[in-house]
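Review this fold:
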Amino acid sequence: MKENIKLQFYQTKDNTILNAYDNIVFNVIEQQTLHGYKSFLLCGCEPQVGTTSIVIELSIILARLGKKVLILDGDFRRESANKRHHDVAKWGISDYVEDPDVTLQECIYGSNIDGLYMLSSGRMDNQHARQVLYSPRFEKAMKILKKKFDFIMIDSCALDTTSDVLALASFSDAVMLVCALNSSPKSKLTKAHQQLKRINCNLIGVIENMVDMKEYESYMDDYNYYNLSADARKGKAREA
């Protein structure tokens, strides 16, 4: 692993949002405890729903709980120059798959978070994505990674942009769909669910992102409680 090259990951400081992520992490850990799952694929039902940010936040929390976590960039279609961290993490999974002289160890990068690592999609021509995903070396890589890491969090492109996601889903222990509350059409969610069901993948839940804070208040009895000062918390407790 390239421990000398540290990718920089940053976590939100909003405690209300962190609490929501904590709830997801609890469910992820529970799935591992109950079923032994290690690899979790997150994909949007459509583009621009914040899947990458969610993967990073969940991975940071897991790493800070003492887990050894790998973020695997499973979006092979976007240009590398447009991806977060690809200016540093130039080698990736596609380089390992296509070049027998490249080791998997060379493609994994450390980060500023203890226990958190990243494996990018690599420098591959995005027209060859399917060849990579269906390669025996890709399957071999996933088996090796599951032995090395406690959790593999796979960040993929949206389901409605390419069928690559379905191939990745077949290598994943569990899948979580991401949608934008109030903007992702129900038809997109329905279609995404049908696509995943058709290949018999293990869909364990849907994450609603981009929630309006005023709406979130209706879901959480103690909305913003953790962002209050100690005195304000005492006052809120007395009101209750």
About this structure: The chain has one domain: 2-209.
